[in-house]
Amino acid sequence: MIPEGIIKPEFERRYRELMGPEYELFLKFMATKPRPTIRVNPMKVDPGWLLDRLEGEGWELKQVPWYEHGYWVSGVERPGGTRWHALGLYYVQEAASMIPPVALDLEPGLRVLDLAAAPGSKTTQMSEMMGWRGLIYANDVSPDRVDALAANVQRMGSVNVLIFMSDGRRAVQTFGRERFDRVLLDAPCSSIGEVRRSWGALARWSPKAVNRISRLQLSLALAAYETLKRGGVMVYSTCTLEPKENEWVVHQLVERGALIERPEIKGLKWRPGLKRWMDWEFHEDVQKTVRVYPQDNDTIGFYVAKLRKP
Amino acid sequence: MSFLRERFGYVPDLHFFASGKRKVRAVVKEGADERADLKGVYVGKKAPYGFIISVEGSFLVGRGAKKGIIELNDEEFDRWMSGQDLELREDLPKGVYIVKYQEVFAGSGYFNGRVLKNLLPRVRIQ
Ligand SMILES: C[S@@+](CC[C@H](N)C(=O)[O-])C[C@H]1O[C@@H](n2cnc3c(N)ncnc32)[C@H](O)[C@@H]1O
After folding, report:
1. Contacts of residue B62 in chain A, CB cutoff 8 Å?
2. Residue A239 designated active-site
3. One domain, residues A175 and A257
4. Least CA distance to A89: which residue of chain B?
5. Does any domain span residue A187?
6. Which of A92, A118, A137 is the last residue of a domain?
7. According to the model, what pLDDT value does residue A243 have?
8. Tell me: the pLDDT tens digits for A188-210?
């Protein structure tokens, strides 16, 4: 159970509206830890070999349907504490966080921008999906987090990654206009989807904080979109379920000409983006964006929008 | 990277560049002329007794290497990953060797004629 007093009345009011009759179920999932998940690095090891080893060591593995190298694991205390982890054969990454790279239609040889990249879960996943070919420009604003990004890029062996430390709101000045085939903006957010990992986000939540971060997200999203080539794909994602941080931001991109596409995510249960929220009415295509609730696939909560620049 | 060719008989198809006085990094060739705060991965560094290969370097080079590799058995690999030096079963010339265990590579060691000195950085030791 989530301790008394952590959930603010306004939070409850809004999430009852968002979840409808599922509100209690939603809370039940929010109160439990998410299942540990790993992402095998096929560039460093034959996945079959590693899976055999792990099973031999007593791990139980269950494949994540939407990413071929993702596995839920049980029977192990600290998945991040093994020699195989130290050698970069896998990465501990929540299953829902593997969705945005899958939505990005990656192929080897592309030029990709990852504007808010640290600590590099998705950067290294994309690098592997591209077979270590092409180039990924991985950027973050926080020095400590850039260190973590660099350490993960090293450990996973991602030789096609370039690291930058800059304010993503200045992406055009840093990287140039219409420069990338793919852009990922996995934005900083109120992290409501992450509450399963720690209740801190619930304690910090307030409508004011949501509005503040939504403004940052919009500036980042507009800058990210500027750097995208015509015909290119951009994914906007967050680990929150706040409409002001999700549909509202995407709606602003649509107003500036972005087209929304429905991503194909194998085996994922998801809800369409909202039509309206509070006083806002969103563009009809916003319903093609992806809301993932914790109770849907027993993951953290996530939001993913796939956009194309015409 | 003539050193790699000489020592291991193989140079991966990447752009190698100096990082500081002794370290060498590698990035895909498309990244050669890009400006960034950090590019690609650290592959190794010069030491008085040879060129130390990092864990990532050992994966990149080891896959195509024709020589300069030492293969470990289960027990040796356990000891290696816990940071110990190894006595070797065979007679080898002195020098830096890439360490291999079945499908995977685990950095490099310096064979001083007596033991294979463990050069794994502390963060990789479990
Ligand atoms: C959700 S996290 C990114 C997680 C990462 N994509 C991954 O998969 O590992 C959001 C990141 O945005 C960064 N950030 C916040 N403000 C930023 C800004 N103005 N420019 C660039 N990055 C920013 C934070 O430092 C944080 O690392």
Report:
1. none
2. yes
3. yes
4. B104
5. yes
6. A92
7. 98
8. 999 998 888 888 899 899 999 99
